[in-house]
Structures are given as C-alpha cells and as structure tokens.
Amino acid sequence: MILEMLNPMHYNLTGMVPEAMPAATMPILLLTCFLLLVWSYEDTSLIPGPGYCMGIGPLLSHGRFLWMGIGSACNYYNKMYGEFMRVWICGEETLIISKSSSMFHIMKHSHYISRFGSKLGLQCIGMHENGVIFNNNPALWKAIRPFFTKALSGPGLVRMVAVCVNSTVIHLDKLEDVTNELGYVNVLNLMRRIMLDTSNVLFLGIPLDENAIVVKIQSYFDAWQALLLKPDIFFKISWLYKKYEKSVVNLILLSSALIFTVWFFVFCFFSTLCIFQGRGDLTGENVNQCILEMLIAAPDTLSVTVYFMLLLIAKHPKVEEAVMKEIQTVIGERDIKIGDVQKLKVVESFIYESMRYQPVVDLVMRKALQDDVIDGYPVKRGTNIILNIGRMHRLEFFPKPNEFTLENFAKNVPHRYFQPFGFGPRGCAGKYIAMVMMKVILVTVLRRFHVQTLTGCCLERIQKKNDLSLHPDETRDFLEMIFIPRNTEKCQEQ
C-alpha cells in the first residue's frame, strides 16, 4: 500500500491541476515571465550600471539624484560602477563619465552641444530654449552665444581689469558692511557684491541695490538647482514648487526693470541684443534671460570659488608666501594692470590647483544629438551625459591628486586632463574673463589683507552641498573669516 501511494502513476495529475488553479493560469504565468524577461533584456546594456529590474532601477537612480544632489550622486555611482557607467534620470538613459579620454571626445564634438534637464523645470526658471547657460535648443544657442563671447573677450576683457580693481577696492574700503560685531567678515557676501558690481559696470552700468539683488540671485540659484531634475508630477502640485516659482519671478521682474532702466544708457551688449530682437531673431523673453544670466553667472560660481581659495591660502602659509613674493616682484605697490596678468605664474598655479582640489562647478551636463561610439561603448542619440570633471581631476595625471599642492602644476598639464571650464563648442564662454577676475581680486585683496579662518575651521571641515554645483552650507556657523591689514604689528606677529 505504501509503495503504491509513493508511485506517481497512482495519481491522475491532469485531473489534479484544475483543482489547484484554472487551466489558463499556467500559460498566463509563463507568458508574463517571458514578457518580463524580454522587458528586462531589452533594457540591459553593455555599459556597467544598476539593473533595470522591471522599472525599479530607473526609479531608484532618479530618486538618488533628487535625494543626494547631482554631484554627490555622480560620485557615488562612479565609485560603485566605474568611470563610464549608466543610470536613468527622468526615465531617460544617462551616462556618468569621469574618464579623460571620453570627456575629451564629448567636449570637442559638435553633436554634444545640447544640455538636458526637466522641460517644466527649465521653463519655470526661464532657461528652456532661452539664454545661453542651459539653453537646450542648439540652433538658438548658436545664435546667442556669439553675443556673450564678444562681450566677455577683447576690449571687454581689457576694460574689466580696471573695473574689477576699482570695485574690489571700493568694497574693501567699506568692509564693515559685511563684518559682524565680532569682527568676522562674511567673505561670500563680500565676493558676491564685488562680482555683481563688476558685472553691472561692464554690462549694464546702472545703479543697483547690491544687497537685495545678491539675495534674489541666491534664491534664483536655489530654485534652478532644486527644479532641474524634478519629475513632471512635481509641477502638478502647485504648493511644492510655488516657493521656487516666486524666487524666479522676483529676479525676472527685477531683470525686466533693469532692462527698462538701461534704455537710458549706451551699452553694446544690450543694444546688440535689442537689434536682433527688433529683427525678430530673438524674443523679449530671451533678451531678458540673457541680461539676467550676465548678472548671475559670476556671483553664482566665482564668488564661491574665490572664497574656497582664501580658505586654502589661509591654511597654507608657504603658498601665501610664494604668492605674495610674486605679487611684490611683478606689481609692487601699484594696482594690477592687464599686462601683469600673464606674468603671475604662481598665482595662476594657485588658482588652477584650488579649482582642481576643490571645484565649485565639478560636472557638465550634455545630450547626444546623434548615435556615436565612445571608448568602445555605443551611445544612442538622445542619451543624457554627465561629465564628472571633479572626480577625473583626482584620478588621472596629477602626481598628488588628493593633496593641495602647487607641485601638481609644476609642469605643464595637458588640457585633456584639466578642464575646469570645459572646452570645445560649448566650453564656458566666460573662462578667460573669469581667470582674469580671479587674479585681479586675489591680488587686490591679498596685498591689503592677511586672511585667517576661525578656530578649527578649514576647507575640508566645512559642510558642503554638492548638487548642480558645490557650495558651502550657509546655514552653518564659522564660515566667516578674519581680515588682518598687512604691515601692522598684528599681521607681522602672524
């Protein structure tokens, strides 16, 4: 009896199946498994990265970018999967690359001149097919960029030196405006005011309420950073984005008021834009955005860059000594002039090493406009690309990549290994004027003041947020610095 019960032939298997499940269930389950297998297989890639996993992978990777910030998420994924890897943002395949060879290929080719980001987010901040910074319409971007290139080079570049010196001196003379009751200087606020004033004198030349505009620029940047990668559903819930929209509207209204005021002044950049608007080549919204971007670009990034540099020079007295020796040799007691800029090699190495060691803009966002192959990997048209430049600067070429030392620029560095401004068709239009501005401001400040950080504070220890760009967390304390006038007993004791 027992053997009979163990014999499988004893049972009518076909008769048992209907009792367990409907007859159609098994084929449906098999078909479902097959479709899921095909779905997952179609979305696999030769490029390393997290799995698709029935659509869960794209949701998780996009969520990580929203949670960690763009820069932090890129570093996480490159560390996890390698220097050429793939994730998804807004459901779109996105490559994160920190290899110099791949970056060089992408930057030099014209089919990578478009950017990517949430259409609704870019529309909210006025950058969707407007302006030059994040304009993702290649044809319109090509038409606008020459205005920026012309304004930020040539005669404008030469004139900028005297303008920047004058602005820096004026703001250093009224340092009390950015100094608290303990004598600590809010360097970020100081630098933003200098950058804004320099940009205004060069490109607008009208009276400005610097403090009010600096606050509005910060709010605009926060909105830009927060909305750039948000999913479309975010913009269907008004209370979620209302505060960001308000920040954007405030700055755009201010920009419109400035444009109205500037009609009473003679200004080449603005008047040229208006000529093209009159011909129908540019819309009023585009002209407005171009003016706005001219004002926000320097206070948005250069101010933080110079702040980081002052933190570094305060911590490295030998570097400060070398810089001051060169300033005294090349310039002496007079103001810096355009002819001095190229002679300041130590200052230049210090700027480069600061931007390498602690970048502010450490990533570049692009979109492929046609199919391509990069380092053996196939890249389809429409693929989003993030170039993780900050990570690349710590992985390749430099002898001491994880240290701040001028030895890293003791020899000529091939530009494919060092790209703080990018290069090629969509390289930063303001890279030359930015370098000159940084030299002028550093020379002017350091000739008058020896800078110190507060006790226990240094660049490596301050809290930072790494999203669209890397900024100090300004909600924290101890970000201020101490400015000690040179040639005083207190300074000599230091």
Can you characterise this structure?
This protein is of the alpha+beta class and 494 residues long. The relative contact order is 0.13. α4 (56-68) packs across α5 (70-81), α8 (138-151) runs antiparallel to α13 and α12 packs across α14. Helix content is 53%, strand content 9%. The chain has a 4-stranded mixed beta sheet. A two-stranded antiparallel sheet has the order 4-5.
Unreliable stretches (pLDDT < 50, length at least 5) are 1-21
Largest sheet: 4 strands, mixed
Number of strands: 10
Any idea what the radius of gyration is? 28 Å
Helix and strand run: HHHHHEEHHHHHHHHHHHEEEEHHEEEEH
Q: Could you tell me the mean pLDDT?
A: 85
Binned, the helix content reads 40-55%
Question: What is the beta-strand fraction?
Answer: 5-15%
Helical/strand content category: alpha+beta
The end-to-end span amounts to: 101 Å
What overall form do the CA principal axes indicate? globular
**Helix count, per DSSP?**
19
Q: If strands are numbered along the chain, what order do they take across the biggest sheet?
A: 1-2-6-3
Key terms for this structure?
globular; two-stranded antiparallel sheet; alpha+beta; 9% strand; 10 strands; 494 residues; four-stranded mixed β-sheet
Brief overview:
The protein has 494 residues and is an alpha+beta fold. The chain contains 19 helices and ten strands.
Record the SSE blueprint:
Blueprint: H1 2-6, H2 13-20, H3 25-42, H4 56-68, H5 70-81, E1 84-89, E2 92-97, H6 100-108, H7 119-124, H8 138-151, H9 155-173, H10 187-203, H11 210-227, H12 238-262, H13 268-278, H14 284-315, H15 317-330, H16 345-357, E3 364-367, E4 372-374, E5 377-379, E6 384-387, H17 389-392, H18 431-448, E7 449-453, E8 464-466, E9 470-472, E10 481-485, H19 489-493
Helix pairs in contact: 4-5, 8-13, 9-10, 9-18, 10-14, 11-12, 12-14, 14-16, 14-18, 15-16
